[in-house]
Write a structure and sequence with these properties.
Strand 3 and strand 4 form a beta hairpin. Helices cover 0% and strands 62% of the residues. Strands 1-2-3-4-5 form a five-stranded antiparallel beta sheet, with no helix packed on it.
Length: 76
């Protein structure tokens, strides 16, 4: 389950906040949680970039903190 909240900050900027719960049903049936914050910017009408920071919490962490950088090109 991943609730996601997205806000447009201006003509080219946006931010996203999400959280996720993940349960390993085949293994030990333990649930891990993580939260993320993303900041994105359109560089042109067809190209953009985003930076996302994710941090796990709870005792059943499946990862350490993560920093993701994404460059993308849209078709429309």
């Amino acid at each position: 389950m991943t609730p996601t909240f997205l806000w447009k900050l201006g003509e080219r900027w946006w931010t996203l906040v999400d959280a996720e719960s993940n349960t390993n049903w085949e293994g030990d049936s333990r649930t891990s949680y993580r939260a993320g914050f993303l900041l994105g910017r359109m560089l042109s009408t067809r190209q953009g970039i985003s930076l996302k920071y994710e941090v796990p919490f709870s005792g059943n962490r499946q990862m350490d903190w993560t920093l993701k950088v994404v460059y993308f090109v849209t078709r429309f």
